[in-house]
User: Fold these one by one.
Assistant:
Number 1:
Amino acid sequence: MLKGSLNPFDIRSVVQTRTERRIVQDIDDLVPSRLGTATHTAMENAWLNHYAAAMANLGYSDEVIASIKINPDVVNPGDVPVYLEKRTNRKLLDYTISGKFDIVINGELHDLKTTRTFAWISGSNDREYQLQGSIYRWLNPDLITEDYLTINYLFTDWNVNRAMSENDYPTNRCMSKKFPLLSLKDIETFMVDKLAQFKKYETAPQEELPKCSTKELWQEHPRWAYYKSPNNMKRATKLFDLEKDANLFNQLNGSKGVVVKREGEPRRCNYCAARNYCLQAQDFELAGLLNKQETYP
């Protein structure tokens, strides 16, 4: 379906949901995932076809370059094995666990993330990165021998001015960070618990499913807004982290104002593929915490 001009970024696709709603999705919403796919493809191509020239340009010796072995079946002494985009399946309980890592270099797991700087600053995905990497090691303990994961970030919204003025902002467009991996025993315990939960709710109606927690939703703590006059509540005079502080401020100002609780925005809903079907997300929309997605009847 075309709406407006014929600019390709204005093209929208319409999909039918199980709830019979027709959801309009901007092509622009698909750009981040497609960018990530393209970046991973480029990385794989660079290692498969251009690593020798690239390493020479970076100053590596001929001896080091010769030691690199891409996806080797046998690793000999002195070799530096590099495994790319390898998918592994492994049985656990009644399920098959499947995963495909980005790259393993000499036993060290690396993952490439094209993401916004918010992920670096807030650490909102750190736990998920750790779990993901730990599952990859559980799937490939013979290839992944180091007990940490290196995340290589490529920031899509990096700003040089913020990098120069904000202490917690990434200093470069490309940055790396290491995360400790869980032990094989601990990550298997985690997966067993998750699979048990999945089995319990596999056929349950959505109303009975556990709701996402505030942490899973990337939802900030509520704040309390003080409005100087109940007749003018377009803009708050002051925001407070604690309700008691807001009420005290109101009292000090003659109790003529109004204190209103503001729930934090569940930001992760904006990136969740299940949002169009999710009752919890619909409740957030009704409460005004999420912008309602455009639909056709």
Note: The chain is about 30% helix and 25% strand.
Number 2:
Amino acid sequence: MTGILSHSADPAYNLATEEFLLKNKKDDVFFIYINRPGIIVGKHQNTLAEINYSYILKNNIPVFRRLSGGGTVYHDLGNLNFCFITNEEKGSLVDFDKHSTPIVKALESLGLNITVGKRHDLSINGKKITGTASHVYKQRAMHHGTLLFSADLTVLKKCLNADYKKYSGKGVKSVKSEVTNISGHLKNEMSMKEFTTYIFNFLMSYFQDARSYHFSEKEISEINDLADKKYSRWEWNYGYSPVYEIERSINAGNITISSHIKVEKGLIKTLKFDTSDKTLDQSLKNLSSALLNIQHSKSAINSAIANNSILPHKQLFRLMF
């Protein structure tokens, strides 16, 4: 077993590292890292349906898509992430219990009473401290998860306060759970740095053949390249979302305007406006034409319409999101 502790807090870099280790290395490995604030969505999720879009734009909180399935999570500097990548036999590639056990034992050694849930999440007193997910590549399996240690739970809740009912489609929906921080349940106070070191050293001892590893300059260059070309791109983080549709309606004075939007690969493919004021029909058709085949994002819509929209931007966005 190889142990790696990341020295980067860049979510794109750390997610790229997971994929690099899964697809380019042959040995079993555990990888520990901390990300600066960001939202991480599951591979098969509709990003917009999982996030509080207005809040994250206002607060400059980026969104990233990971390689595994499962639900959306919030990361910040108070959240420790673990990843196990192992070679497995066909038919037993995904084994949540196998990879959750060392984490449970590490937490129990700190005097914590850990419960493993039906979805393989870990809880303290009925409140969730980690969610886990997996991904298989050939004969290698990746199992990873989060450990809420001293995360800002107020920001977490605001970021994930999404109204997924606005969106219809086949995207996997997150299951909401009440969460708690590990730090509030410890008998002896620990800093985030101390907790990270403790977990890493515990795993190094748990796997008796473990050895620490540091990436070469060539490997770091390859990981950075993957981070730049995939995990930092809108096309992956938003555009990879499954096909979805939105129907919205607003009242503008005495006028009612409704919209029906279909989005594929993150691009607006069909857009129809209906209005109770038929004198607006042609203008709304022109607006629809201007927005076709652009990214379903506020920045792209702003660029496409410039100052030519017949609706104030605030009203238009209520029709589009």
Note: The chain has a mean pLDDT of 94.
Number 3:
Amino acid sequence: MTFAADLSTEILRHLSSTQDASGYDELRFGKMKLKRRIENGINRLARRTGRSWLRTASISHFLEQLEGEDEKLSALYEALADDASKELLLRLFAYRALGFQHVRLPLATEEYRRKRKQLGKLFTGEEIRDIPSLGMQLRRCRLHELGAPIEMFGLLAGLECVFSVKQYEYEGEHGRLAAGAGDVVIDAGGCWGDTALYFADRVGPEGHVFVFEFIPSNLTILRENLALNPELEGRIQVVDRPVWDQSGVELSFEDKGPASRVSLDSSPERDGVTQTLSIDDLVAQEKLERVDFIKMDVEGAEPWALRGARETIRRFRPTLAISVYHSIGDFGEVYRIIADICPEYRFTLGHATMHQEETVLFAEAR
């Protein structure tokens, strides 16, 4: 079977089913709006009456996004090293085609919701930090009950992915992938410091974490969170530049917290400008003798960041955990770049939410 045939089968399998609203993530997207509630009602009616115009429109939009991506996506599908990863890729794409009304992702369970409620109790509510650009507040929480000796300001959705679901770990038939004791980790896209602290705890006193983060408002919270954890802070070095394929490139940026993006476009709507630093140049500047683990979540800039890490990947063959959910094109493009740099990598796929965000492509040198 081919990727096209398997995906067609997967979409058809879900097309005739209608899920209830429990697959909708209110924590991430807020209360369901009238338009979405009406869509749900139409979907249920369409199933009973045999009409499918709404679903056809959704699939057509999805197929437009696949235009020109078939070869790279087929190559990724064939390269995935276990059945669980292949099945997850098909399920994720069926979800993108049909939505939560028809497709349940693996975490859309009562057990997941129960754990989320328990995690919510870790937020003390006594202290908050305002994020005016996002119109939201971060609350202080203690993560000790999750096995992480960490206290920080954050959002439930983000901390859930990192510390409860363990977004940057993978366990499958070929073993477990995760940062370990003594590792040197590069954390590209640090935001408020949750992943940097997670990795610092994982690598222990003999390890070290380099975290790329340059958005001013993110840096303010990140540095405060590091200061709240003095034992871990000494293992973390902040790199206040955006990661890119070359150093010294001037980029403009939008300050949107975890959704901040960089661009070569200097339109007046941007919030500021900054200069890039590649991972290869960071490794050279710091005279690093090894890099063991690279994580990236840089809002669609992952292909550029990977191209700027070619020599590091070839030389050290670190485990990679690269976000691919920002666009359908990223799935195949990120795979292609890594495979071109180092053909010996083994690929698996992980996902950390009940919606389409937070998919991570893992690559392990064989």
Note: The first strand starts at residue 123 and ends at 131.
Number 4:
Amino acid sequence: MAPSALTLAFDAQLSTTLFNYRKTIEDNISKSSAFMYQLMKLDPSGYQKVQVSGDRMMMPLMYELGQADSYSGYDVLSTTPIDGMTACFWDWCQASVPIAISSREEKLNRGEAQIANLLEGKTKQAELGIQDFFNKRVLLGAGGTSITSAYSSVMNGSSFVDPLAKIVAYDPTTSTSVGNINQLTYSWWQNKTASQTGSTYKAFLIELRKLRMKTGRGPGGFPNLHVVDEDTYALYEGALAAAHQNPSYQKADIPFDNIAFYGKPVTADEYVPDVQGGSETQSTSSGTWWMLNTQFFGFKVDTETDFAPSPFVKPENQDAKVAHILWFGGFGCSNRRKQGVMGGIDTTMTA
């Protein structure tokens, strides 16, 4: 049976609405966290739209440098090839959020203006849902006590992207494959990590400086974004104030409240987990500080499925129509050595 004119009107209006709204959805998802904003808006390769190919997302990486040497006049130049070029691989993942319209809603919104208003509200609802999904799953993974595991759907068993707690791990020495490379076997693939042990503001700041120095070793520079839990943010702010340092509140290039650390933004996120305790439940005695060099992170997203709408379909057992906003892409890191995390931060210290 041919679809009704009203169904076609909804399909056409949905396509028009989402065609105009896709950029807004992407913009608002980027604003769900400072990390997402940095990748999607500020880093040139942070959110690439590509023609997907291959069974996994490939990111090239280098773990050895070219062997430069001096020479004079007619000296023989080295022609020794350099090893150390390889690639990491990350699973392609998919996500969707439904836009459902019941027969009752359809009948109560027959006019063109009413259809547009209804779809705008439904689209906004869907956008908020997928925005929250991205932020939670990138920072918390499966959540609970599985923050280093990718989220797995309870409905169909599919997995989403590897979370930050796995890519920048509190313990990067376990025999775990990250990006299809065993981090225990290859020490050059391990991120930097530290446990906060000092009992004073001064000791805490020294520990932060030491971790930053470790992440800055070698080419690629220092971290350009620091993501912490809310208690750690307050602790750092208090430590600066106690040292009579201007907290240097900045907007930087991100639309989030932040305090500078070596001129780079420190921003709090409610979904930052307790990496030492391995739990999404934050602890006042076990705060988390991620030091991230975001030039080595990135999303690759299918150009045809970057928050793209599907047509409305009527389920057999419901008097309703359902369409979906679809996303297809991958997420990974090409240099874990430039990333750092500090766990076990005692956020109750007062001096």
Note: The first strand starts at residue 47 and ends at 50.
